[in-house]
Amino acid sequence: MNHKDWVDFSHHFSNQNIKAIFSYKSFNADGLEGRKDLADQTGFSSDSLIIPKQTHSTNILFPEEVGRVLDTDGVFSLDPNLVCSIQVADCMPVYFVHHLDPVFGLVHAGWRGLVNGILLQSAKQIEEKGKSLSNFDILIGPSIQKCCFEVSDDVINQFDPDFIEEKGTGKYRIDLQKLALQQLVQNGFKREKITTLTECTYCDAEKYHSYRRNGKKAGRMIGLLGYC
After folding, report:
1. How far is the C-alpha of 97 from the C-alpha of 10, rounded, in Å?
2. C-beta separation of 33 from 27 below 8 A
3. Which of 110, 137, 148, 206 could be a cystine partner for 91, CB 3.0 to 4.6 Å?
């Protein structure tokens, strides 16, 4: 289902009970009220939200109650009455859904999180709950693509050369989606159960916010994931 202010990604998952939402630039995502408004519009309870304070960390948690979670960039749940949320503006929103059981999560994965192991931590946390990684469907949502993600000499040594395209004059393009896919598969998730969307948040200025394009004044998109 598509809506002028948000998109429903639920059809990407085999679990028929899940609802996966992502807001567009046209949706007012400011603060807590923005998340509550999106939850209400898309059929979730606005009183069920898990809201991480994102810091580009590798911290992954399974909160057992609603509300704010400090210093966390990935939230998962075993409770179908809770709703995971994140916000992004170029970084990857990564949706994880068990194909049968009520186990689901959202991860905010920027380049720092990727190189520092946020997807590895996600895998570890899931396995600690006794769940097999092979049973998860994963969606990497709209994010900045290789065409627009450019870095300089000062950080290029943090990336595997397989994901680097040299542009000259000390500039390089990085394929973050390809890097995320490799990390997910290496950590135990199934390649055939991972979907990567190719829409670039930087390129599509009409549809998406972009921190790289607009800097500190950039807005945010919201991801929501829970049981319907």
Report:
1. 10
2. no
3. 110
Contact between 169 and 156 under an 8 Å Cβ cutoff? The reply is no
Domain spans in the chain, listed from the N-terminal domain onward? 6-145+177-227
Sheet holding 60-61, edge to edge: 60-61, 74-77, 104-109, 92-98, 136-140, 194-196
Question: According to DSSP H, which parts of 21-70 are helical?
Answer: 31-41
CATH 3.40.50.880, applies to 6-145+177-227:
no
Residue-wise pLDDT tens digits, 75-99: 999 999 999 999 999 999 999 999 9
Cβ neighbours of residue 50 closer than 8 Å, sequence gap 6 or more: 63, 66, 67, 69, 75, 77, 82, 83, 84, 85
Residues in the chain: 228
CA 151, 171, 143, 185 dihedral sign is negative
Q: What is the pLDDT of residues 140-154, one digit of tens each?
A: 999 999 999 999 988
**pTM of the shown model:** 0.97
Contacts of 215 (CB under 8 A, 6+ apart): none
